[in-house]
Each structure stands twice: as structure tokens, then as C-alpha cells.
Specification:
The chain has 18 helices and 15 strands. By secondary structure, it is of the alpha/beta class. The strands form 4 sheets. A 7-stranded mixed sheet has the order 1-4-5-15-10-11-14, with helices on both faces. A 4-stranded parallel sheet has the order 8-7-6-9, with helices on both faces. A two-stranded antiparallel sheet has the order 2-3. It is an enzyme of class 4 (lyase).
Amino acid sequence: MDQNKIILSEKDMPQAWYNILPDLPAPFPPHLHPGTMKPLGPADLAPLFPMELIKQEVSMERFIPIPDDIQRIYKLWRPSPLHRAYRLEKALGTPARIYYKNESVSPAGSHKPNTAVAQAYYNKKEGVTRLATETGAGQWGSALAFACNLFGLKCTVYMVKVSYEQKPYRKIMMQTWGAEVHPSPTTLTNSGKAALQKDPNCPGSLGLAISEAVEDAATHDDTKYSLGSVLNHVLMHQTIVGLEVEKQLKIAKEKPDIMIGCVGGGSNFGGFMMPFVREKMKGRNIRFIAVEPTSCPSLTKGPYIYDYGDVAKLAPIAKMYTLGHGFIPPAIHAGGLRYHGDAPILCLLVNKKLIEAVAYDQKPVFEAALMFARTEGIIPAPETAHAIKAVIDEALKCKASNEAKCIVFNFSGHGHFDLAAYDAYLSGKLEDFPLPEEKIKEALKDVPKVD
């Protein structure tokens, strides 16, 4: 019989995270202080993060051991299964072999707890009692609420207003785990008040929600800030995904030809593919494809420059592909892909031509999501559906060329809390929002001048 799932035992779970910094093809551009424009030091980050995470952010150790307490919690759902998508292959009539890493099996329904649990653990060790964060579609907020509950920490979540209204059950999920959830922009912070004064109907953005969460953490001694993507330590925690995939593909006697993931800030795709970058740099022909929406096309249309990580210019400045920190994206349902920039590590790899980037409109993405749901059975999150669209396109190219390539993608989360988006698509109400060039030019006017 065909093997539909490759499942590792708990004893085979990776014991350390992979840190790509020592293996990058070029020096990593340092983060800059938003006030001085000079490289950040540990003291600059101390108001926001516990010292252990600051050390991980700049560490040049290739592997960082995963503490036992974190591993014990990971084992609630890890190792996650690697599925062979036989039914999707058959529906497409492709000779390609399609695999997907199913991160939707976590308690929060996505890959996000891989770093949420780690961040909550290190904050608890340092005596922090509350974490403040932002969330787009709610996957990250749900994961941090889950993790804070396990470690007895309070959790405050600033959820992008349009997603707060589109996805009420994500809010309830966070509240079930004890989190306090606010639609961003709020009147609780100066950042939120400024945005509402400028536009009382502001739908919010991840950049703006980050400003609120950073301001909250910086103005309360008992509180630290927690970020679900973009920064180095976050992507490193997610490499447990790719390290498991390495072991599972060996069991399947496969080597990936193409690896695909959706990209908002970059955590799921980065954690999934970074362990394989070493092979590509040694000469193996692996294509890495990052998928984003046409309404927020930072990798495909943004310049590679230094920019602020948030609207209010409170977060560190990072070198990345960006649409401008003041960019407010259209209200698409893939709320986790609405960030103005991307993880600096991924941006460097894109700049060095190790990663390709593509962008899709909403409608073809949901068409791909339905095909996956009706063949493989799992309803994907709108973010994940972007990766599925690219997988289908690549599989059809294999059909046309009669090439039996191995395509592997990260199924970053299920769409059980995103059914309003499916309702909009099925009822013909879903709209595409390709971003006009003039909007990008306008948003880039206020980026910092850094040599």
C-alpha cells in the first residue's frame, strides 16, 4: 500500500534548532537603532526581549540546544507528519511527487507555537510576568496565548482590526487561553491614537499593531514584547520544521527539487527551508519559492533597503525588501501575509538569488485552496493556500514537461477559523487587490536614509 504519512517517533524529534547565520552567503546586515541609526547592541534590545533571546538573535553557533522544558511541550504535537498528496497528484494528472509538512496539527492550528513556546519559556525564566504582541489573522496571537497559558504569563494581543472583525473565533480562541485581545489601532497607545486621528476608520496593519505592542512593552516594567516572525531567533525556532522534514524525506528516499511556502514575515517558510540551504550552497539544484499576495508584494516589488519594522518607528530598523513602514495593505483575508517587509535573513537569500519569489491574487489562491480541500481533505488557511497555488502551478509545469520532480511545501495552518473568507469566495464576493505602483512609491517616501 502507498504510505500516506511519514511519522517520526518522539525520540527522533530534533534536539537543537539550526541557526543559519554562520552559513549565510554574505555577512548579515545588522539591525539598527530607530533613534540613532547605529547598530543595535544588547542593551538596546533589553527593554523588549529577555537576554537569552537577544543572544540567540546574534549567535554564530550553528546549533542551539532546545531546553528539556520546551521539548516536553513540543511533544504535545511534534513531530508533525509529512504527507504525500496522492489525491492532489491524481487530480492534477502530474508525474510530480507532492509532499506537505502538516503544521496544522498543533493546538493553535499552525506552525506558530514552535516559537511561541520558546519565547514564553525564556521570558518566564527571566521573571517576566506579561507579554505584549501583535497578530494579523490571529495565528500568532493564538499561539502566544496558548504558550503564555502554559507558563502562567499574562498575554496582551493587538489584533489587526480588519482581521479582528473578519475572524471573531480567533479572538475567542485567544481569550479561551486567557489572553486580552484588542482590535488595532486602539486608543490604549499613542501609536494607535495617532493612527485613528489620521483615519478614524483605519483597518489596521501588522506594522501598526507592532507599534502598539512595542509601545506597551516599553512602557511597562513587567512586560516584554514577543514577535511571531521576521527576527532571526524566531526563524531559528521554526527550523525544527525543516529538520524534521530532512529526516522524513530520508525515510521516503526522496530529495526535494522544489520547496515552497507562503511568506508574510517569513517564519514558516524560513524554518521549513533554511536547513536545506546548506545543500543548495554545496551545489544541489533545489528551488526555494516564496509566495506572497499581489496586494502586499514586498519581495516581488519592494526595494532591498533599510526600513523601520513598524509604523511608529519604535521597532528596530532592518535591511529587507519593503513597501514602506507606513504601508496599509488592502483588507485581504490572508491577514498573516499583510506585513510591509520580510525577515532580513530571507531577504538576504532572495537578494543572493537563492530564493525565488512569486505573487498571486486572492481568487486563484482560493481556487487552489478548494482543490486541495476537495482532494486532500484539509481546509487550508488563506495564507497556506498561497503556497498551494504555487505547488499546483509547479506540478502542472511538471505535467507539461513530463518531469517527475519532488515538490515539498509547508502546510503552515488550517483554515477552520477562516470560513468567512471561503464564504466570500464561494458567494462570488471575494475581490482581488493588485497593488498599484503609485501606492508603493507613496509608501516608500518616508523610509530612513541609511548608507
